[in-house]
Amino acid sequence: MFDRAVAWLLEAKVLLPGLSVLERAVARVRTRANARQHRLLIEAVTPDQRARLDDLVEVPEGVRQSPLDRLRDGPYIQSGREISRALARLAEIHAITSELPSTDQLPPGKVSALARFVVAAKAQAVARLPPDRRAATLLAFIHTLEASAGDDVIDLFDAVTTSMFAQAATASKEARLRSLRDLDAAALRLRDAAIIVLDPETPDEEVRAAIFHLISSDALAAAAERVGTLAEPHDDTYFTELRKHPRKIAYTPALLAGLDLGAAPAGRSLLEAVEYLRVVHSGRKRSGPVPTAFAPKAWQGQLKTADGSLDMTGYRLCVLDGLRRAIRRRDVFPVRSLRYADPRKGLLSGAAWEAARPAICRTVGVSASADEELGRLSRRLDLAYRETARRVPVNTAVAIVNTPVGPDLSVEHLEKFEEPPSLVALRIAVDARLPRLDLPELILEMHARTGFADLFTHASEGSARAEDIATSVCAVLVAEATNTGFEPLVRLDAPALRRSRLSWVKQNFLRAETLTIANAALVSAQNAVPLARRWGGGEVASADGLRFVVPVRTIHSGPNPRYFGQERGITWYNLASDQFTGLNAVTVPGTLRDSLNLLAVVLEQETELQPTQLTKLPFVSCHPASACGFRWFEASARLRLNSAFHLVQPIEKGMIYRRFSISPWRRRPN
What we know:
The chain is an alpha/beta fold and 670 residues long. Among the domains are: 1-40, no CATH class; 260-343, no CATH class; 351-411, no CATH class; 427-670, no CATH class. It has helices at 2-11, 19-42, 47-55, 67-71, 80-97, 108-120, 123-127, 131-198, 207-214, 217-230, 234-243, 252-258, 268-281, 312-329, 350-364, 370-391, 421-433, 439-450, 469-482, 499-508, 512-527, 530-535, 561-564, 595-603, and strands at residues 261-263, 332-334, 398-403, 406-411, 436-438, 540-549, 558-559, 568-577, 582-589, 613-616, 620-622, 641-642, 647-648, 659-661. Strands 6, 7, 8, 9, 10 and 11 form a 6-stranded mixed sheet that branches. A two-stranded antiparallel sheet has the order 1-2. A two-stranded antiparallel ribbon has the order 3-4. A hairpin with a 4-residue loop joins β12 and β13. The longest helix has 68 residues, at 131-198. It is globular and about 125 Å long.
């Protein structure tokens, strides 16, 4: 507002007032706008409702936590009991929000900004706010928390049910392996009897006598019974293991009652089954047949008992399995959600889409006709197959080999090219000329060149800034990136580096949105470097990731013995441009499929680069001891700073090409 006011005064040839006068005018406008926003939020709030909101930040007698601290503390442990506790938390939040007015009259961004302050600030700081601002802030927070708490329930439900079904599959395989010895012995007895039956030299009237002479009737009956018991289909063993612990799904009634779900066309049959279970759990009677259209073929036999009646345990398990898969595909979604909302929300439809279709198709380079585009892709695929089939016979490095699972393509390893002596000499010469530089100095220099630290704003979006706040922001980034904590950075003689200042900055300034904005500024700065433009124009990006073991309890970690052993971990999935800058990154539980996150990583990046081609790189696994946030790409000195929420990734490459050591805030000679 200040810059635009100055530009207007210059254009209108108005004699400029003093800077302080203009600053005060802008501050008054901001104050009036914020006051109007608070007034619009609370104009429908009654005195009783305001008192209930104020009670959220008050610590009750004999309790150590305020309701605000308790409600914003989400679940940590992956278990069925934790789902019940998370549902109780969601129900308590529902009870509060059901009596409060809606926040739909304001833009969602403004409401989220108010809610972010409560997430970062202490309850005492919220309690000290002016009455109107406190009520508006708490109202925005409790509505946002309702969606966030529902997402926590879904995260927990997905982790617990996935683990339950995986354990049942493992147990069925182990039970099958344990029974193989007995099954083989019984099968061999039956084989001996079958040999006699099939022997043409044994008369038909003497077959029974010959069999019982070789094997007693009791032994033969026991072998037949044993085979019938052990040789059951694999699915039956799997479902038997699932049914052994019905208490594991005791949370089902509360889960289905606590989540307000919607469905896309592909998930409506499952939503009907969910509604049926809600009616059954409530004790009411439902007319009409039981919904079973959603059940896969493998589950059909588990929905009814031997007499044809409904098997409630099997039906619940089938609904939970279908719900888990449908939420992942977004065929079923919560009505109020931040992470699992309806994917069609915000899409153009009807006349608006028909008007925008030609321009959008022209922008992305596809045909406006689906049949024409599918035909073009089919022709390209057919041509690629034919070209590959033509080249395989003459390519000695490629062979078709037979494997237990069928034919497979085998490609020989490429031979290694030795580095020429000139390249080795060049590397040594360049390395000798690189000055040593402390990491904090590099971060501060990047701030001096780009001003990225000024883009970190307070959670309240207030305009007041503490002195040398950029220094404090850079120090916190170094502490988060290197996992050293504040101790190596604290200096009592520098107010910007005192522990209280660093803790305050981390709590109020380091957020996903501020890190994203700062990252976009750094990407833009590097895009202006001529050398970076020689590397690429930003149209090509590579997607890869790092896997980390998580040593603390969290519902956002997942198991994978191949990468994490007996522990749990996460995958840091990121997108890097051909200019060696990081565009975006997300953290996903365990080793979730890349396809579920790739589009989100690409489409939600907010830099000025717009990649149109993607390449996939292999993942790298890291132990917590090495998870310092640094990673080097080949022939690059791009530094990424990994924070608790997001990344400040790119540092100018080409302009800064140095060796540096990690000895924070202690200058040493180059």
